[in-house]
Automatic annotation (TrEMBL):
Keywords of this entry: Coiled coil
Coiled coil as UniProt keyword: yes
The protein's name: Prefoldin subunit 5
Coiled coil: 8-38
Length: 68
């Protein structure tokens, strides 16, 4: 079975659409991977005591005091 010229054009157009979608999804995946890495780094910093989340004293000098 041979494709007609119109079918070939339609399929090539569809391939282009799918390639663009793959490119968009790959960029979104990279963005999500970066966000996940940032989240892991933040969590590790909090657990290590490098970042404190003392919201009761937010904006006071106590909020900048490192944990013992």
């Amino acid at each position: 079975m041979t494709a007609t010229a119109a079918e070939v054009v339609r399929l090539r157009h569809r391939v282009g659409e799918l390639e663009a979608e793959i490119k968009r999804l790959a960029a979104k995946n990279r963005e999500l991977e970066q966000a996940a890495e940032t989240s892991r780094n933040f969590k590790a910093s909090v657990e290590a005591g490098h970042i404190t989340l003392d919201l009761d004293n937010w904006g006071t000098s106590e909020s900048h005091t490192p944990r013992p």
